[in-house]
Specification:
heterodimer, A: mainly alpha, two-stranded antiparallel sheet, 22 helices, globular, B: 831 residues, alpha+beta, nine-stranded mixed sheet
């Protein structure tokens, strides 16, 4: 399948948030008889180098957790914009929305930063390994209550979500399995006051439990081993569950029958995320019209696009606040199921939030005479100029006509350029991933 | 921030199968085919149709919404439901506590996390149940007979997943259901197309499953809408909105999400215009409290909303439950108090509040001082026409002896929803729920029916700041008989007329409320006239009850709307109005107010004799009847009796030129009272002038404005607090010669404490004999004074400045026969 410019732009939008001209040029220089070379290029996240967290995020800002939160949001958005291979950040965002914890629930923000960092480091690694690390992550121990899960009256919070939302999906386990898993995780607690993972043998239930029909003295990590490594039936279910979710995240939410099923067995065999993601990005269906038109930019993706194309500073633009008003509070998914897609983001309130952000960006772009050059252009030329500035190519006829008519109806004054900028940022094209 | 959301994808996945557009024709007359064509413009092929169908209920609906926002006021018998979702699974056992049940203290006792609420701390409802100590306002709702508690609510074969359970609650279908729609969404589907557009709203940023129908869905309205995008009014901004609307002129050929985005943007532009006024003044408080404020204001705005939906998140208390749960219930309680205190009285009898949560929690606590996902739970149903009490069987502890045992359900939640749908939303419950349900009977009556008793929710929050009264020489604002003030010609039947006062007629820009003497003449039929703040929905109150052949005056004290205007409404026939402004209220503390127990200062029948035409008398008020020695102004009730001609009285500060204004209008033979606010002359006296004929004059003093007095006036939007014809605020019975005691503290926007007096518009309705009515402080002796004089069969209103007795009540005495009494509160005085 030869790869077109349109395919490359689609690949970049889905993996790197925006189509940087320099990146498009790099990909166009590759062998494009198949997508393989381009996909390998966007996936070469090793080029990002050492991604260790800055010292400020290694401990708690005891003076102001709010300041730390705002800095954390800006930090992440900037990563998405500036990294040589932003796909690492896109995948980190996926895992943040999958293995969910939440900043204001966890309490200590830097624990969330460290959890995110672990996702960053493992985002294309081994799913089984990552799941084991996730289970004993400090933020997760607090968020899903294993920190206080002790024998006698176990807390089911983590055990249930591990199966329902993290690996298998509902219907693939029983209440007995949840109870057994909860008991197995007893004693896998957090130390006080640092919440570092600690195993407390006196709080662990060493009795026999029956999990997936096997009765023995199950221990917590063995539960994950059973699901993702040892139980052939369950690990195929888990592989399909993760494959489908990744497919929906990267390609589109309604894959044709069989696409996911075809990819799952290979993933089940090795739990290798790099291989799975490569298969998805190289798949012909990934370049279908259904895929290209299949995802709305999430609020975070919209914010990244606005920051990138405007060239304005993410911190100055108040991205933490903008993420909240557009409906996707960073480091704070709405619940343990994470975020959803498409229609989830398209409601009146959230679009008002997007519009208010666009208006704010407009004021800053117009400061000091920015875009005054539009006055001298014809309406059509001005519309195409601004669309190109925001990386939209090409505008649909409906949108282009609407923008040209609007530009033509506006007297040739300060508002003419101002409104065209805002309207282009609010054109549907700019809100499609 | 998004509400926790179990809408769409998860619910679809978790329930059995997706719901396609279904029947051949939607209720708005669109066939499935036509609908799809409109969305896809013929671009969608066969394969894409399947894709589209899977997403239907999510993706398509902006098109339907964007074109025809009706914004039609709801009908007088249309019920409104406020649905409160307690996300995460509320612990019903610690919400409605079986505080005399030993089993409760076993499972929640020291051996199990010590989560039990001690019997000494619960707010006892009866000998069996008590509310969590954070639910103080909810307890008052119970005391008012407006809280129904439904016990043991759940669904068969409970699933302990948040997502499955919430999806079942939201979908709310008997039998194997299609998960793509929710119960309110299906109700929306059945509403007439012309009115369905603005019928349901969720306050937040996402539309959850229960609000999604097959062809319609609720709109999402943010809790922070200040300066909302789309509500601008500058010409360039309006041109930009036009341009954005054009983005959805035709399908762009870029897929369904592209088109949906464009159409939702268009919807937002329309929505912003309709709803942005509800954000002024900006709501305050916690997120949930702001949402509840917005919900109440959306109802008050009367845009057509029948369902409001609000969520409160965080009930998944697996650990450290006591503090967290108390915080959450405090938010719930404060939210309810804010909602009912913001809600306009016109909607009291039309609003029902329902709480729900996906499940309860385990009876036993875990060792993290928390509880895990449970099953059966309690539900609250609240409203003026809700019959307070317990419904359903409380969950039994009999089968609870193991850590993971959970309560058995006794009441299917669909019985609760069905009762709400049939009792409050116009019926169709068994269709919407896809099966028969049991009506639980927790409604007294239908929406808009007069509540059997009470009917007023407990109220908190004063909506405006204390003010001082600035007395003016009376000045004519308008007279529709001669066009003074810009309007010539009477008000027509059903007409609302806005008149701007602030910034004119000597009423300054900082005026918050005005006192005007309002007179109705030339009524062609018996009618009523209501005055209320501009920009607000019309309250269910009245100021005047004109009948043909009478000139009826009444003092009206009215908050000014944001634009400085006041609305006047005439119900039937035509009527001319004339008005004189006599003073205004503004922020300030220089002049205080002391409400007084009524005292008679003048009765010409006992002494000087009737006041002749063109005659004037000076009446000493300083130092008499509780009035201070150096008053700024006084509130008087002035009654004319036995006039021989059509005439009027003018009352003004002694020693100053007589203004052209009327304080009391009269027709021969009629006894007419009116409250008069007037400055006092430098000599401590007021002057009283009769224009023509002769009449006796009776003057009672009601209050004194003075630099030394500490009380301040707080102007409210009018709210009805008493109507003996409907059992509102008093028993449903006519009043005889036993004084009626009416509680005013904590009602109609009057706070619970710190109140010395209340400004009431009292209307005496069709007495069986000629009589007078006296309003005086509760617990004190009845004074020789009168506020209203009314003949058999008449309807006479008068403004009353009523000082409150020790118990926060006033007495209303009827001198003869039987009478109905109606009272609207328009403001109060602080201590």
């Amino acid at each position: 399948m030869p790869v077109s410019d349109d395919d490359l732009a689609h690949l970049l939008r889905r993996t790197e948030f925006v189509v940087r001209p320099s990146r498009l040029a790099e990909l166009k220089a590759l062998d494009l008889t198949t997508p393989d070379a381009a996909v390998d290029n966007v996936m070469s996240i090793a080029l990002n180098g050492n991604s260790a967290l800055p010292p400020y995020f290694q401990s708690e800002d005891t003076a102001s957790s709010w300041n730390q939160y705002v800095a954390a949001c800006t930090f992440w958005i900037n990563n998405m914009i500036t990294k040589p291979r932003p796909f690492q950040e896109k995948m980190t965002l996926f895992w943040h929305g999958h293995f969910v914890s939440a900043w204001w629930d966890v309490g200590k923000g830097f624990h969330m930063m460290q959890q995110t960092q672990m996702y960053r480091e493992n985002c294309l690694g081994n799913f089984h390994t990552m799941t084991q690390k996730m289970a004993i992550d400090r933020a997760m121990l607090v968020y899903l209550s294993n920190a206080e899960n002790v024998k006698g009256s176990p807390n089911q919070n983590f055990a249930r979500e591990l199966m329902e939302l993290f690996t298998l999906g509902v219907g693939n386990y029983t209440e007995t399995d949840v109870e057994a898993a909860a008991q197995a995780w007893t004693g896998h607690n957090a130390d006080w006051p640092e919440y570092a993972y600690v195993f407390k043998s006196n709080r662990h239930d060493y009795t026999n439990k029956t999990f997936f029909g096997t009765t023995k003295a199950w221990d917590g990590p063995e539960i994950i081993d059973e699901i993702l490594l040892n139980n052939a039936g369950k690990k195929l279910i888990a592989a399909r569950f993760i494959t489908k979710k990744l497919w929906e995240f990267l390609a589109h939410p309604t894959p044709p029958a069989g696409v996911v099923d075809a990819l799952a067995p290979a993933f089940a065999a090795n739990m290798n995320l790099t291989n799975l993601v490569r298969e998805i990005l190289q798949h012909p269906e990934f370049y279908s019209t259904a895929a290209k038109q299949g995802l709305v930019r999430t609020p975070i993706e919209y914010i990244v696009a606005l920051c990138y194309y405007s060239g304005l500073d993410a911190g100055d633009l108040g991205v933490s606040w903008r993420a909240e008003t557009t409906g996707q509070q960073m480091y704070q998914p709405p619940n343990v199921a994470g975020w959803k897609a498409n229609a989830y983001w398209l409601n009146t309130s959230a679009l008002a939030g997007r519009a208010e952000f666009a208006r704010s960006v407009t004021w800053q772009l117009r400061a000091n005479g920015g875009f005054n050059n539009l006055y001298a252009m014809s309406a059509a030329a001005a519309v195409d100029y601004v669309a190109n500035f925001f990386g939209i190519y090409p505008l649909s006829t409906t949108t282009r006509t609407a923008l040209i008519n609007a530009r033509a109806s506006e007297p040739n004054n300060w508002w003419a350029a101002t409104n065209l900028l805002t309207m282009t940022m609010l054109a549907p094209e700019f809100h499609m991933a | 921030m998004l509400d926790p959301d179990i809408s769409t994808a998860d619910a679809r996945r978790l329930l059995s199968q997706p719901d396609l557009l279904g029947g051949a024709q939607g209720p708005n007359g669109w066939t499935r085919r036509k609908f799809l064509q409109a969305i896809g413009g013929g671009v969608l092929g066969g394969a894409a149709l399947g894709t589209f169908g899977d997403r239907l209920g999510l993706g398509s609906l902006g098109f339907d919404l964007s074109e025809a926002f009706a914004g039609t006021p709801i009908g007088a018998r249309d019920g409104i439901v406020l649905n409160i979702l307690l996300y995460g699974g509320n612990d019903g056992l610690n919400t409605v506590v079986p505080y005399t049940n030993g089993s409760y203290y076993d499972v929640r006792g020291p051996s199990y996390g010590n989560l039990a609420i001690p019997a000494s701390q619960v707010l006892p409802l009866d000998g069996t149940f008590g509310l969590h100590p954070s639910l103080g306002y909810t307890k008052r709702l119970w005391d008012a007979g407006q809280l129904a508690i439904v016990h043991g609510v759940g669904y068969p074969n409970p699933d302990l997943s948040h997502f499955t359970s919430m999806a079942i609650w939201m979908a709310a279908k008997f039998g194997v259901g299609s998960p793509g729609t929710g119960w309110i969404g299906r109700w929306l589907d059945g509403q007439p197309a012309a009115t369905a557009d603005l019928m349901a709203a969720t306050i937040g940023s996402s539309v959850p499953l229960h609000l999604l129908g097959s062809v319609r869905r609720a709109v999402a309205v943010p809790e922070n809408g200040y300066n909302m995008f789309g509500a601008g009014t500058d010409a360039p901004e309006l041109r930009m909105y036009n341009g954005l609307r054009a983005l959805s002129d035709s399908p762009a050929g870029r897929g369904q999400w592209h088109d949906m985005y464009a159409s939702v943007m268009k919807t937002q532009l329309k929505l912003a215009v309709d709803v942005s006024p509800v954000y002024s003044p900006e709501p305050t408080g916690d997120d949930f409290v702001r949402k509840m404020t917005v919900a109440a204001r959306l109802i008050n705005a009367n845009l057509g909303f029948r369902v409001l939906d609000v969520g409160l998140d965080g009930f998944d208390t697996h650990d450290n439950q006591p503090g967290r749960h108390a915080d959450l219930l405090t938010q719930l309680d404060t939210g309810l108090a804010t909602f009912f205190s913001t809600l306009d009285a016109a909607f009291y009898s039309r609003v029902t509040v329902v709480t729900m949560s996906e499940f309860g929690r385990t009876p036993y606590s875990n060792d993290s001082a928390g509880t895990d996902h449970g099953t059966a739970n309690v539900q609250f149903v609240i409203g003026a026409n809700v019959r307070g009490g317990h419904y359903g069987q409380p969950s039994s502890f009999a089968s609870i002896d193991h850590q993971w045992d959970r309560f058995d359900m006794t009441t299917d939640f669909r019985n609760v929803l069905g009762t709400v749908i049939d009792g409050w939303m116009g019926g169709g419950g068994s269709t919407i729920l896809n099966g028969a349900f049991e009506n639980l009977g927790f409604f007294h009556a239908g929406p808009g029916d007069p509540p059997p008793s009470g009917g007023i929710p407990p109220l908190i929050t004063p909506p405006s700041s204390p003010t001082e009264f600035v007395s003016m020489n009376p000045l004519r604002l308008f007279d529709t008989r001669d066009g003074t003030g810009g309007r010539l010609g009477p008000l027509n039947a059903g007409e609302s007329w806005a008149f701007t006062i602030r910034g004119q007629f000597g009423v300054p820009a900082d005026a918050i409320a005005v006192a005007i003497n309002l007179t109705a003449v030339d009524a062609t039929t018996a009618t009523f006239v209501t005055a209320w703040p501009g920009g607000q929905s019309q309250p269910m109150t009245s100021n005047l009850n004109p009948v043909p052949g009478m000139a009826v005056p009444n003092l009206a004290i009215i908050r000014l709307g944001n634009a400085g205007d006041v609305n006047f409404f005439n119900n039937t026939g035509t009527v001319n109005l004339l008005a004189d402004v006599v003073g205004y209220f503004r922020d300030g503390t220089s002049i205080g107010m002391a409400p007084l127990a009524p005292a008679r200062l003048l009765d010409t029948r006992e002494g000087i004799g009737a006041l002749g035409g063109g005659q004037m008398i000076d009446l000493q008020v300083a130092g008499r009847g509780g009035v201070s020695s150096n008053p700024e102004a006084v509130a008087l009730n002035v009654t004319v009796t036995g006039p021989t001609a059509g005439s009027y009285l003018t009352v003004w500060p002694s020693g100053e030129p007589r203004p052209f204004a009327s304080s009391v209008n009269m027709v021969p033979g009629q006894t007419v009272p009116n409250m008069v606010l007037t400055r006092v002359g430098a000599n401590g006296m007021v002057s009283i002038y009769n224009n023509t004929g002769s009449t006796d004059v009776v003057v009672d003093v009601l209050g004194c404005f003075d630099g030394d007095a500490s009380g301040r006036y707080v102007a409210l939007s009018p709210r009805r607090v008493l109507d003996t014809r409907e059992g509102l605020g008093a028993p449903l019975a006519q009043v005889g010669q036993t004084p009626l005691e009416v509680t005013l503290l904590g009602r109609g926007g009057v706070p619970n404490e710190g109140v010395s007096g209340v400004m009431l518009n009292v209307t005496a309705v069709t007495p069986t004999a000629n009589t007078f009515v006296t309003v005086y402080p509760g617990g004190s002796d009845r004074p020789m004074a009168s506020n209203l004089n009314v003949s058999g069969g008449q309807v006479i209103p008068n403004m009353v400045l009523a000082r409150l007795g020790a118990g926060g009540t006033v007495m209303m005495y009827n001198n003869g026969g039987l009478i109905d009494l109606v009272a609207d509160v328009v403001g109060y005085f602080t201590d």
